[in-house]
Prior knowledge:
Elements: H1 2-22, H2 29-49, H3 55-76, H4 84-103
Subcellular location: Cell membrane
Transmembrane segments: 33-50, 57-78, 84-102
Protein name: Guanidinium exporter
Amino acid sequence: MAWMVLILAGIFEIVWAYAMKLSEGFTRLTPSIITLVFMILSFGLLAYAMRTLPLGTAYTIWTGIGAVGSFLVGIFILGEPASAMRMLAAILIISGLVLMKLSSS
């Protein structure tokens, strides 16, 4: 259950990061509110998952989901470049997440 909560927390991190981009520095009300609501939800779910998962594992997985997810949103929704170096970096992050999951009990 904690793993599912942690994955949802990571997805919510992607949502708030994207909404923050759309808020244009918190100058637009609706994206700003979405950012704050999903930040609170994401942090709350992360805290809940940390009740049973190790700190290093939970935080690394949460951050990695947010980082790779935001990277993909940037490419597919915002039209950011998908250079070979950026793709390699994302693959390395995903590899680290898989290793972190495999190493936890």
